Amino acid sequence: MNAIIFSVIGGVVMMFTGIITQQKKAIRNVAIIALIILLLANIFDTYGILSIHIGTHGMLNFQKFGLYFNTLAYAATLLFILISGADVTQIGEGKHAAEFFALIFFSLSGIAIITSYNSLLLLFLGIEIMSIPLYILTGGDKRNLKSNEASLKYFLMGSFSTGILLMGIALMYGAHGGFEISAMKPSAVSNEYGILDPLGLVLVFIAIAFKVSAAPFHFWTPDVYDGSPSVFTSFMATIIKAAGFIAFIRLFDNKYVELGLSWRIILPLVIIATLLVGNITAIFQQSVKRMMAYSSIAQAGFMLFAVFAENDMAKEGILIYTVAYSVATIGIFAVLEKMEDISLAGYNGLAKKHPLLAATNTIFLLSLTGIPLTAGFFAKYYMLLSVIKYGGSTVTWLVIVAVIFAAISAYYYFRVIQAMYFKTGNPEVRSYNKGFCFMLVILAAITILIGIFPTIILNWFYF
Amino acid sequence: MSQLVYLVPLLPLAGFLINGLLRKSLSKQAVSIIGCGVILIAFLISLGLFFQVKANGPIIQTYFNFIDIKGLNIPFSFQVDALSVLFMLIITGVGFLIHVYSTSYMHEESTPHFARYFSFLNLFVFSMLLLVMGGNYLILFLGWEGVGLCSYLLIGYWFKNTDYNYAAKKAFIMNRIGDVGFLLGIFWLVAKLGTLTYGNVFAAAGNLSAVDVTGITILLFIGATGKSAQIPLYTWLPDAMAGPTPVSALIHAATMVTAGVYMIARSNILYSMSAVTENVIAIIGIATVLLAATIAIKQNDIKKVLAYSTVSQLGYMFLGLGVGAYNGAVFHVMTHAFFKALLFLGAGSVIHAMGNEQDIRKMGGLRKYMPVTHITFLLGCLAISGIPPFSGFFSKDEILAAAYAKNPVLWVLGVAGAALTAFYMFRLYATTFLGSFRGTHDQEHHLHESPAAITLPLIALAILSVIGGWIGIPAVMIPDANAFHHFLQPVITTEAIAEMPHATEWLLMVVSVAVAVIAILIALGKFTKRPELNEPQGLGGFLAHKWYIDELYDAVIVNPLNALAGFFKNIIEKSGIDGIVNGVGRFILYSSRQVRLVQSGQVGSYILFMVLAIIVLVLIWINDGYIYTYLSKIF
């Protein structure tokens, strides 16, 4: 429970920091310290060194997997703030830095709930606590119409999905007479209410699919990611998205066995649709930011394999995928944040003028493509392997489809590399300092380290 | 001693790595010491192994599992027995002499290139040792490919000359063609027997059907025709003379080209099971003898004559293999290694003295200027011509006797080849060393005997060429004196040559020696005073142009292949494959443009799509049973 408590405290502290000081650097440093404390508190909790517990009547159920995911998510957030924190403080007129950090902390507390919920009510609360700060962050650039539009769209469609989620929860409550997922047994539902259970479940599924931007519930993603300030896009596309998958895994971990055939039809459909929309549409984008929005949809398609397979390998895989994908995406957005022109042409000739930015950016793009020796390779490898372990030869075709789409994804990722290295141009880049370069190198090093020793992440997990 | 087996190939490998990697920093002296030293040590170890094998029988060392999959286990192992230790001695012994010779011959090269030369040479020795020491066909194949690579690298050693590069490529490609056959043979073995280890293969050979045996042996033999320059794949060897002369001596005369003989002698159990293959080998062998010998008569490049002579002598070895005289063939490999290395090195000495002139029409009378080279070369010529008691006589006689036992026609053709051999060798000798000097004044001024690093290997090889045959004296001369047969007994178990009356055997010997002597006398008489200086006409021209075989291959194989490649490149590749590939790309780009339009920016339409999707998913979810049954009917 440390994670929930300390993230909320962190949020409150940040709000008060905003009253005390307007110094951006100070605010950022407070945020970093608060985040480190949160991270440590969660690690202590994981290993049982120091954990605070408040009775929740079984509505929360802390398991190692969820806590460990918290650690990874908070570590990723720490990297995110270290590399992009200065940019966060610049959003809008730079007057609301503390509030932005506070919102990020509140969102993190939502994640902590999502990773440990046992009651569907808490799932609902977690998703809302995680999402509402994002609606505000998306509109963080107050004077920018695009940012406002994105915020409103996000809110409208988010409300829509919330409604569906509530509907689903209500139906499941009707079938089972309770909210605790660990107590739900489809076989115990009397025939009279038989239809309520699957119907409720499919609605909950759809609501979470919306959050992880799985097709065909992805429509909000490109518009919102494109419109919101880049740093917040980076946060939303990585840490928040990964949390959605944990919600999935917790939900279906218990019910999965009895879901039966529908699973084998619907999930492959959703996966293929997601891969198709993400990859195919990304190809045509001229803006790197928008391309990354579609890329995040495509990557979600791959992460859905973990939900489909639902075995231990899938759980390990989703952890590796979270780290690999988050680190690479945070890095790409950090570079993007420094670009004056975020269209593909704006990257032309970057390698000549800023070799470090180009080189690290290349490593991140390679990782997203899934090239060996980068983390992304093992991320995809674990996903595909978990599905094969689950379905054997009956899912070979699905794996082949996924690999084909991974090949297609190389086209749009490599276009950026091509622009940076093989085209001439005069890219305009905002000033950046040594610390920024250092963090980029750290991110690239993590990407390659995991690409060589993917199990270092998992070794901690089993510690 | 047997613990040191792995050092024999490992030392040359180390020499290759040191000389290759440090070629920019080592001095020529250091390179020479390392390059020659590793071979010398390898030779000494081989010598020790030789005595151990002689006393205690074969040594088989297994180091690790090279390939270990279900149904196939190939260990990385070395098999040092009578046959392989003999080859090891030839490779490291003759190889050492040639390395020493090279330190002087290649001295004008700049230091990095000098080191490159020695590193390649060491790599070659390593590969060749792998080839003969391997305990199964796969290791043999590794060495087989390795020597092919080194041959390519060394033929193209002077890579700035386009013709030399072309010759290197030709050698490599011709060998690759043979290798296809070789590989198929190995695959066939794996498919039928599931093992490649010599002992297991030969033990299980009885289970093979007649078709299998013939197929496997023919395919392996095709590999041998490439590596050992037999009809129809021999044309690369004369061109391979583009490499430095010591390379020709080591690779293209003494060792690599005998790999095919080694392989067949090693597999004698398989080969003796198929009469068809034996006949094919005998016929190809004798045809190669005669074809190459006739060409050699009209060549004017000193190395080309020796090259065709090598092809011809290799033909004798295959003739021996074909008639079942495995001992004789291996014996001839050994004596040939001595006298042909000697002849090449002597030719190198001449070329060196003449300032890189290779045309014998511009030589003559070198006897006076280069006494050591002259004497040793003459001994080499006598040995190759089969004059007793020089080494070539004993080995060639053994093969010819076995050929007579098989079919007298083969013997007649073989003796004719021997006569041609004696004739062209002494034509070469007379034109080069006798008569008067025909080169320029400058060249005459520079003529000199070569330094000790060149003459000492010549002398050593000359001694071996003279006495090397005495270990294989036929029983008809001195009973039980044939140490060679005795030594190879454990490996060559299938030699079956019909016994002949002693009188017949003596008669055959006398006839072949007499024919050779007559040929020598004719050649000396004809070319000492009046060497052939003009371009030959008529039949001579036909021979000088090598029967127009290269032109024939160009017309029949190379040009049609080029045309076919052009067709594939311009038609199939450009319009067909590229069309499909680019079409796929264009289709995806097109779909991207269309799919993008769904993302209209209108929240209303988004929600409409989502509601439709929800309805579809709910319907599927509820009717999953029907859908699943339906789907499973389709797939």
TrEMBL record, chain A:
Gene Ontology annotations of biological process type: ATP synthesis coupled electron transport
Primary localization class, coarse: membrane
InterPro entries tied to this protein: NADH-Q_OxRdtase_suN/2, ND/Mrp_TM
Keyword terms, alphabetized: Cell membrane, Membrane, NAD, Quinone, Translocase, Transmembrane, Transmembrane helix, Transport
Transmembrane region(s): 6-23, 30-55, 67-85, 97-114, 120-140, 152-175, 195-219, 231-249, 261-284, 317-336, 356-383, 395-414, 435-462
Principal EC category: translocase
Function: NDH-1 shuttles electrons from NADH, via FMN and iron-sulfur (Fe-S) centers, to quinones in the respiratory chain. The immediate electron acceptor for the enzyme in this species is believed to be a menaquinone. Couples the redox reaction to proton translocation (for every two electrons transferred, four hydrogen ions are translocated across the cytoplasmic membrane), and thus conserves the redox energy in a proton gradient.
One term of GO molecular function: quinone binding
Complexes and interactors: NDH-1 is composed of 14 different subunits. Subunits NuoA, H, J, K, L, M, N constitute the membrane sector of the complex.
EC number: 7.1.1.-
Protein location: Cell membrane; Endomembrane system; Membrane
Gene Ontology CC: one annotated term: endomembrane system
Domain NADH:quinone oxidoreductase/Mrp antiporter transmembrane as annotated: residue spans: 118-403
Descriptive protein name: NADH-quinone oxidoreductase subunit N
Protein family according to the UniProt entry: Belongs to the complex I subunit 2 family.
Membrane topology field: Multi-pass membrane protein
Catalyses which reaction(s): a quinone + NADH + 5 H(+)(in) = a quinol + NAD(+) + 4 H(+)(out)
From TrEMBL, chain B:
Membrane protein topology class: Multi-pass membrane protein
An example Gene Ontology CC term for this record: membrane
GO molecular function (one): NADH dehydrogenase (ubiquinone) activity
Entry's transmembrane regions: 6-23, 30-51, 82-102, 114-132, 138-159, 171-190, 202-224, 245-265, 271-293, 305-323, 329-351, 372-390, 410-430, 451-473, 506-524, 603-622
The keyword Repressor belongs to this UniProt entry's keyword annotation: no
Ranges for domain NADH-Ubiquinone oxidoreductase (complex I) chain 5 N-terminal: 67-118
Gene3D superfamilies in the record: 1.20.5.2700
Protein's cellular compartments: Endomembrane system; Membrane
Keyword Lyase listed: no
InterPro entries, A to Z: NADHpl_OxRdtase_5_subgr (IPR018393), ND/Mrp_TM (IPR001750), NU5C-like (IPR003945), Proton_antipo_N (IPR001516)
Chain ranges of the NADH:quinone oxidoreductase/Mrp antiporter transmembrane domain: 136-421
Designated name of the protein: NADH-quinone oxidoreductase subunit L
Organism in which the protein naturally occurs: Hydrotalea sandarakina
